[in-house]
Specification:
InterPro entries: Calcineurin-like_PHP (IPR004843), Metallo-depent_PP-like (IPR029052), UPF0046_metallophosphoest (IPR051693). This is Metallo-dependent phosphatase. One of its GO terms (molecular function) is hydrolase activity. This protein is an alpha/beta fold. The protein has one domain: Purple Acid Phosphatase, chain A, domain 2. It is built from six helices and 18 strands. The strands form four sheets. The protein has an eight-stranded mixed beta sheet with strand order 12-11-16-10-9-6-5-15, with no helix packed on it. Helix 1 packs parallel to helix 3. The two termini are about 20 Å apart. About 5% of the residues have low confidence.
């Protein structure tokens, strides 16, 4: 007997990245995703300010990764390079990181995954699996970096059932163009997204790359010459008081051609496990996700950089990107 497919419900996800000590007012939503560069250099005072802002925001779940500027959150980097930067006082990386790890309202991810169950009676009561990483290809001397061409050791750990992937770096060729028109995203991340095919891939890092691309994956893989069958660019509707909205829900003319992996297991055994977030023991695999080719065809790739390009002129800022997407409703046995 075929397993009954659980119902889905529209869930609003607010995406932002590269706030660099700014604490902007955010639109309403169910889930907040911050894709890194919370600060300018990750001092304890900067992190406390940003953490206070995040904890006061009104979202049922808040997914946060660090970025290359959040240097004290990368203890190995700080130990090696802290003398190269001007710090107000010596910093304690363990203390800085523990502020985020121990936060009661934030899911801080560092190359790991979590299953999120929205349980507020007034909310959508939906669920999803999310993987998060602060890492990016090496460029100059920054935190959380790997040598270009060696990203697979990070991205092979993305679980095959991840519904949302949050990374500081964008994938190569998508929302990653800088002021010199160079592509600076990660090729291995793009390959991993083709394998997993999450609903959303949220990033930042390249301020000039802010935007959204809807990618239809090529089922034939790289042997056909391209991982992507087609790419649709987003036209930002966020002028004036309007939100920068991406509608992928059933209310739109073209809902996302992607089904959450949690539709297979969105019944949980007891209320004790119904908290909004918890660490998942989801296994990792670099093997192709066979099931993805059957039920996951598209990924919406988002660069949600809040701060605009770093130029000699005045600073510019972007609106957070708001995404409506269908997620499975969960229930307790």
């Amino acid at each position: 007997m075929a397993q009954e497919t659980p119902p889905t419900r529209r869930t609003r996800i607010v995406c932002i990245s590269d706030t660099h000590n700014n604490t902007p007012r955010l639109p309403q939503g169910d889930v907040l995703i911050h894709a890194g560069d919370l600060t300018n250099q990750g001092s304890e005072s900067e992190l406390k300010k940003t953490l206070s802002w995040l904890e006061k925001t009104n979202f049922e779940a808040k997914i946060v990764v660090a970025g290359n500027h959040d240097m004290t959150l990368d203890a190995a980097f700080y130990a090696k390079h802290h003398t190269s930067w001007r710090w107000p006082t010596p910093q304690d990386p363990e203390k800085c990181r523990s502020m985020f790890v121990s936060s009661p309202s934030i899911t801080y991810l560092e190359n790991n995954a979590a299953a999120i169950y929205l349980s507020d009676p007034t909310g959508p009561h939906t669920c999803f699996t999310v993987f998060g990483s602060p890492c990016q290809p090496n460029k100059w001397t920054w935190a959380f970096q790997y040598e270009r061409g060696h990203g697979a050791k990070v991205w092979d750990t993305i679980p095959p059932d991840a519904d949302i992937v949050v990374t500081h770096t964008p994938p190569y060729g998508h929302c990653d163009t800088n002021t010199r028109d160079d592509r600076t995203g990660c090729e291995e991340l793009l390959q991993a997204l083709h394998r997993v095919r999450p609903m959303l891939a949220v990033s930042g890092h390249i301020h000039e790359g802010r935007g959204v691309e809807r990618v239809l994956w090529n089922n034939d893989g790289p042997e056909s010459g391209s991982l992507e069958a087609s790419v649709e660019l987003w036209k930002d509707p966020g002028t004036g008081k309007k939100q920068s909205l991406v509608d992928l829900s059933g209310r739109s003319r073209r809902p996302l051609e992607n089904t959450s992996a949690l539709t297979r297991h969105c019944t949980i055994p007891s209320l004790a496990q119904a908290s909004p977030q918890y660490d998942s023991d989801i296994g990792s695999s670099s093997e192709p996700n066979v099931e993805a080719g059957e039920r996951r065809h598209e990924t919406c790739i988002i660069n949600a950089a809040f701060m605009g390009p770093r130029t000699e002129g005045p600073k510019t800022f972007n609106k957070p990107i708001v995404v409506d997407v269908e997620l499975p409703v969960w229930r307790v046995e």
